[in-house]
Design a protein that fits this description.
By secondary structure, this protein is α/β, with parallel strands linked by helices. The chain folds into two domains: 4-179, HUPs (Rossmann fold), CATH 3.40.50.620; 202-326, TPP-binding domain (Rossmann fold, 3-Layer(aba) Sandwich). It is built from eight helices and 17 strands. The protein has helices at 19-34, 48-58, 75-85, 100-113, 221-229, 240-244, 275-278, 310-326; strands spanning 4-8, 11-12, 15-16, 37-44, 61-66, 91-97, 116-121, 123-127, 130-137, 142-146, 153-157, 175-179, 207-211, 234-238, 265-269, 286-291, 304-307. Strands 7-11-6-1-4-5-12 form a seven-stranded parallel β-sheet, with helices on both faces. It has a five-stranded parallel β-sheet with strand order 14-13-15-16-17. Strand 2 and strand 3 (15-16) form a beta hairpin. The protein is elongated, with a radius of gyration of 22 Å. 39% of the residues are buried.
Length: 327
């Protein structure tokens, strides 16, 4: 049986999520090293249209799994459907992006399939006849190269680590649609409700000033807001840690499970620079980082690095700006 590399496509409101194409780029690179054919799998209530679009745009074969119970993502039902569908596929690698869905799905699927599970992968290297997968650890301060010990591996890919290809083969891949039955489950997803959009639009901002846990306390957020006010078309953002603490709402979160931004200027205030955060802002044109830790990972992607306490530096900067304007 020919071995495969399986990509789990993610979709939202009838559209393929862009990071799916990044996962396909990874799979094609993996194909050049592992010599296994790439197959795309998409699950949902009605996926025929999206499956044909994927086959046409990428030139890859696509397998669609359909069922009324797959209308909304449910980890138990997705694991059941994938497990029963891959019996004749024999995938060496099952790839998906490290989004909220991928992060939720991958570990449990690995347990069901007796597979290795490597998450937030951002690189791949040949290693003595085997393949090692690269991921950041300890808040981005080191990189680990991991070689799976089992024959089958579940891989989640850090968004932004691979770019979607601009060109694919001119041919169209084949499309196969299968109906799948509901599996035994202790939960059921009835609907998905999105958070309400407010006037904030990080996508339109030329300048983003982002707060991290290094600002110290929620009361110090006024420093970040005051700094943002001196720029035109500016907005404030936040790391996941700040949102988890409740200092700012999740609509401000930048990173893998938040927003992806690319402003002209990104000012990181007290942000350590985990790979999950960096994936959401690394395409910014200019990055200025303020952090008390000289070894902070955020400095690795910064154009200007300021080693200082945020609560010391920002007031001095604002005072100097005030003096400049009044001069």
């Amino acid at each position: 049986m020919k071995e495969r590399i399986l990509v789990i496509a993610e979709h939202h409101k009838g559209h393929i999520v862009p990071t799916t194409y990044e996962a396909i780029t990874f799979a094609l690179e993996l194909n050049s090293l592992a010599r296994a054919k790439v197959l795309v799998m998409i699950l949902g209530k009605s996926v025929n249209g999206m499956a044909n679009m994927l086959a046409e745009t990428t030139g890859l074969d696509v397998l669609g799994l359909e069922g009324d119970h797959l209308e909304f993502y449910n980890a138990e039902q997705y694991k059941h459907a994938i497990e029963h569908a891959i019996g004749n596929i024999n995938p060496l690698y099952i790839c998906m992006t490290h989004t909220a869905m991928g992060l939720d799905l991958a570990p449990g699927l690995a347990v069901r399939l007796n597979a290795s599970c490597i998450t937030a992968v951002e690189g791949i290297k040949p290693n003595g006849g085997k393949l090692s997968f690269v991921r950041s650890m300890y808040g981005g301060k080191i990189q680990a190269e991991i070689i799976p010990e089992l024959k089958k591996s579940i891989i989640t890919l850090l968004p932004g680590a691979w770019k979607a290809r601009e060109r694919y083969p001119d041919k169209k891949g084949s499309v196969q649609i299968k109906d799948v039955h509901r599996g035994v489950s202790i939960s059921r997803t009835f609907s998905v409700k999105e958070s309400e959009e407010e006037s904030l639009n990080l996508d339109d901002a030329d300048v983003i000033v982002a707060a991290g846990r290094g600002i110290g306390t929620e009361e110090n957020l006024h420093l970040v807001k005051d700094l943002a006010k001196i720029f035109n078309k500016s907005a404030i953002g936040a790391s996941k840690a700040v949102c988890d603490l409740g200092w700012l709402g999740y609509k401000y979160q930048i990173g893998m499970t938040g927003r992806t931004v690319s402003p002209r200027l990104y000012i990181a205030c007290g942000i350590s620079g985990s790979s999950q955060h960096i994936s959401g802002m690394k395409d910014s044109q200019t990055v200025v980082s303020i952090n008390l830790d000289p070894n902070a990972a955020i400095f690795n992607v910064s154009n200007y690095c300021i080693v200082e306490d945020v609560t010391t530096f920002i007031p001095v900067l604002l005072e100097e700006y005030k003096n400049f304007v009044e001069a």
